[in-house]
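ok posting inputs for the calcium ion job
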Amino acid sequence: MSTRPNILFIMTDDHAAQAIGCYGSRINSTPNLDRIGNEGMRFEHCYVTNSICTPSRATILTGTHNHVNRVTTLATHLDNRLPNVAKHLQSGGYQTAIFGKWHLGQGPEHWPTGFDRWCVLPGQGIYHDPRFAEMGEHVVKPGYVTDVITDDCIEWLDHRDDAKPFFLMCHHKAPHRPWDPKPEHRSLYTDPIEIPETFDDDYRNRARAAEAAHMRIARDMTYDDLDLVQLPEAPGANLGWSPHKLVPNPGDDELSNFSLRCRNTGELFTFTSRDELKRFKYQRYLQKYLQCVHSVDENVGRLLDYLDTNGLAENTVVIYTSDQGFYLGEHGWFDKRFIYEESFRMPFLVRYPEIVKPGSVCTEMVSNVDFAQTFLSLAQLPEPNYMQGRSIEPLLRGDTPDDWTDLAYHRYWMNQDDIHNAYAHYGIRTHRYKLIYWYNEDCGEIGANPGTDQPEWELFDLEKDPLELFNVYNDPAYAGAVREMTAKLNAEMLRIGDTPMHPVA
Ligand code: CA
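and the output
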């Protein structure tokens, strides 16, 4: 049994694939993450079943969709009596540990179970001198959170029983908002950062949700997010970061009496147009986000070096992923939640020299509901019937089973349920198309769209419109595609036991 592989699962929070070198990043470099991709397999089409932190983590741990594990929102926490993959690995002879972000609830009913050792951040955690719950005891660990979590992983590896294989979940907080980089990294990424093609999206030709979302860098990102203080001080403008606060923005005619001061350096910024201010906010946002990613990359390098130094590289499956994607200015947005590509897609890199050809790329559809069964199959343990994914081990070996799925499913349940005002929806993506159903229950009037709570459908032709700017659902030329995709969506919901919001003809 000692030949069973170790599994090192490294997951960050909100790290988009478009900010990883081996995914073709045009905005940063990540040499250590690229090592995993270049020495292993890069998945081009890995998707999240619900693009938000808590539900994604529940799916990864349990191998089930959110309507089954009941962790549908940020406020629905995991019942730790449920079976999970760590429990199966533990009872199957693995040493198990988790360090870092948990975000599945706190207290005796929600703390991690199935782990021999755990030390996790309560809630979101903080970046500097973070507090942890270590086996239920509260401790403060000085230092920068990404370094501290890696230190904990290395210390645990150093003291493990090397007669047994290990399963280690290294869950970073970074690069989650509020972006708070390590002081040593604050001078990085200060050159102008490329602006994405859809930055000035006007949300036309789409369902109402895109216009209604409060995720716009220009309007909804606070100055506090960017270490800025608004001058002259307007009521409510400089209250400090809060996920529940919108920021008042100046009109063009108010800009002559408007400036921003950097809280760290005292530097003063003035603007001649709102467009200039929007681009300035984008640059500051990306700087801070990429500085946080830099520390992740460094610390992944430390773990890879540890495996090399200790003769573990050959027999350890190393995985790098993020709990979902993120908008880095695409559609003018930050944040996540939507089935649109940038937040739906997860980076997913796997190195395991035993079976994975270096530098390989997989274009099959996989999702986070497949992870648990993949761990079990690599550990040569049975895959329980209650799990709803499929092991990707054949794909890692370079073989695609004939009946491999051609789609990925997504459902976001929090209908306008927080400050970002994202509408609930479900849908599927195939290689060619994406079909989305927006329930629009009680969504009221927004912008220029007449108030109606009628549901809406979207279909995107990803071959002709990869940026998802033109909803072709009502275009007669796509009637066949609509029929085919609707049938696939219905079949998938039936297969996984999820309930449609409204009956579909
Ligand atoms: Ca997240």
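notes: The CA atoms of residues 5 and 476 lie 52 Å apart. The chain is about 25% helix and 15% strand.
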